[in-house]
Specification:
Layout lengths: L1 H41 L10 H8 L5 E10 L5 E8 L2 E12 L4 E10 L17 E8 L23 H7 L5 E12 L18 H28 L11
Parallel strand pairs: 4-6
Antiparallel strand pairs: 1-3, 1-5, 2-3, 3-4, 5-6
């Protein structure tokens, strides 16, 4: 009985570890395709890829929306939120998420970059914020993922740890908000109240390391269990004593 229980445990462990290895392989292929898509998107000048509300609505309906281009509209600075806290170059601060009222109608949230805590109030940074139309270029995509360790938002206290578009729209009384975030890399005119990242964004891709980790564990578990089984089979069986007459 113990023998079969041991074999069952060995097979279960081997299946679990092999499945995790295959899952990471699938994730690696998926992430690699995203990176290839981004390379193609970045090869186009965003000024030549203008998005109107109709194109944005079609993009928002995609299961994995991803695009690189430009939109025009008016920032609603009085309804922006500070997302964080976060750190950048050793400084504490927040990412600024500002609604952009599009020229053709509708609203999209724009991540305008990092602002240090000391200048969180725009009035304290002596920055001029344009009241008229602006052009914003960057990546259109879903908000960054959250995990079980991400603290919940608290709209009542105006504390935001992640971009929940529905909750932000309700808290800021925004209508017709697209289910996308524009991660801005450039604006015209240039805004100086945030540190906008002009570096090209790519998702983290550590799945090759994860795949190797689970693959090695599966090989060790499988090889170790098989070796133990063969070793047990080679052991000589003790001779049975003949019953005394």
């Amino acid at each position: 009985m113990k023998k079969w229980a041991g074999i069952g445990l060995w097979l279960t462990g081997l299946i679990v570890l092999s499945t995790l290895c295959l899952w990471q392989s699938h994730r690696l292929n998926w992430k690699t395709e995203i990176i290839k898509t981004l390379d193609q998107l970045y090869s186009v000048d965003p000024a030549q890829n203008i998005f109107d509300i109709a194109r944005l609505e079609r993009l928002a309906r995609d299961s994995r929306p991803l695009a690189y281009g430009r939109v025009s509209g008016t920032f609603l600075f009085d309804r922006e939120i500070a997302l964080g806290p976060k750190t950048q170059d050793g400084q504490a601060g927040f990412h600024i998420l500002t609604p952009l009222k599009l020229t053709q109608g509708g609203i999209i949230l724009v991540n305008r970059g990092f602002r240090e805590t000391a200048t969180l109030d725009p009035a304290r940074c002596a920055c001029r914020l344009p009241a008229g139309e602006v052009q914003v270029s960057g990546i259109f995509r879903r908000p960054d993922d959250v995990n079980r360790f991400t603290p919940p938002n608290s709209p009542v206290h105006n504390q935001w740890t992640h971009a929940d578009i529905g909750a932000i729209a309700q808290a800021r009384d925004l209508q017709d908000v697209l289910s996308l975030v524009l991660y801005a890399s450039q604006t015209s005119p240039v805004l100086t109240d945030t540190q906008m990242s002009e570096a090209r964004w790519y998702p983290r891709n550590e799945h090759r390391n994860y795949m190797l980790f689970w693959g090695i564990l599966a090989a060790i578990w499988g090889g170790g269990g098989l070796g133990l089984y063969l070793k047990q089979r080679k052991k000589p069986h003790p001779e049975r004593r003949r019953p005394s007459v």
